[in-house]
Design a protein that fits this description.
Number of domains: 2
CATH topology of the largest domain: Pathogenesis-related Protein p14a
Radius of gyration: 40 Å
Largest sheet: 8 strands, antiparallel
CATH superfamily of the largest domain: CAP
Low-confidence stretches: 1-33
CATH architecture of the largest domain: 3-Layer(aba) Sandwich
Helix content: 10-25%
Number of helices: 6
Strand content: 25-35%
Length: about 300
Amino acid sequence: MTRGDAWMLLAALAAGLTIASLPAAGGAALSPAPVATPSPLATPSPLATPSPVATPTPTPLSLGGVIIGHSVLDVVKSIGPPDVLRTTDIGHEWQWVDTGGLDREVLTDDDMIVQQVLVAEPASVPNSTPAPIVQPAEFAALTMRADDAGTSIAKAGGEMIAEPDSTIRAWALSGGVVVAELESGRVGQLLALDDLSARRLGYLAPPPFVSSPVVHRAPIMTKEDLVPYPDDAARAGIEGSVVVRVVIGPDGGVERADIVVSSHNDEIDAASVLSAKKSTYRPAQCDGTPCRGVYFDLQSYSLFH
């Protein structure tokens, strides 16, 4: 570079020109330097959405295969129609006698949701060999001493509830309370209660600010109108049991009658509905005033052999 070129470079820098615009030494133009392409900014990764924390589902309380808070019709599907069915002031009692080695009594509301389950050893038959003890799958406690029964229920998560009655033991579990009724220091029967029943019976503290419950009296069938055995079913030797859910109005009239447990024979089912509709009832009472109520009518059709 000559002295003249150096002066030209300094002047250009002072004027803000780039080197590429200057002539090369000897008068040739300098080739422009390649401009580096800036690297594209990396696209930020989207924030990972945190997985929702799974809330553990509480295990429902069950006893003798009957689940508290579920429909009693699940029991019917499993072990058949009840042997006895009664409508009472506190609910509807469904009873199965010596089914699978256990007596079961289930209390439901008007919508057939299980609120209480009682299991016991079936009564012994005179002059016969006693059957082996069958324990509920949930708690091996029947006929056991109170302490041994408590150990079995504690293993299932039960926490003992203080109980002043020496013939009673009670444990709180997820979904309700289990009560053991003692006979000579051994468990004679087990009772499972939902939370509402346990509070009403005093095993759990009632919630604050509870309004006084309505005094309820269930409807009563005052006269049953029996319908003859359907001829075709009788000739075919068909038998069966039917449960009809009857809605009784405040005037005692039948507002509707629906089959909830079928005999699987159309004639027997139709005869059962007709009988329920033709029967007469005393209406339910709510705080002394006639009100709408539900009555369950169990009808069994069997032939003499």
